[in-house]
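Lecture notes, continued. The same structure-token format from the folding unit now serves as the input rather than the output. Read the line below as a description of shape only.
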């Protein structure tokens, strides 16, 4: 009986109908590495966004230049700040040292 349970046709939902081969489990497809083409495009785009922002362009101007919505520009800036920006504690310390900057 165990041999029948292990036979591929015992679980037809686990079969790829097109090929007749056992189907891959969910999530067992090709892994997406950090160097995938999509990630490289995003990293390059984000770098351009950050450069334009440093040059003083608005999110709308950057979005128009790069060809993405303003929300994507904001997301790229947030990713950069989260990765490289000052911590919340450092920002608060600077605010306390320079009260005129908060007014």
């Amino acid at each position: 009986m165990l041999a029948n349970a292990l036979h591929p046709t015992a679980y037809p939902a686990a079969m790829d109908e097109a090929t007749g081969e056992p189907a891959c489990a969910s999530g067992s497809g090709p892994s997406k590495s950090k160097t995938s083409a999509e990630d490289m495009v995003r990293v390059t785009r984000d770098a351009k966004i950050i450069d334009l922002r440093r040059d003083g362009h608005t999110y709308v101007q950057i979005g128009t230049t790069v060809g993405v919505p303003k929300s994507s520009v904001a997301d790229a800036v947030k990713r950069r700040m989260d990765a490289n920006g000052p911590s919340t504690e450092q920002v608060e310390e600077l605010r306390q040292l320079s009260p005129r900057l908060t007014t």
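Point for the exam: The radius of gyration is 25 Å.
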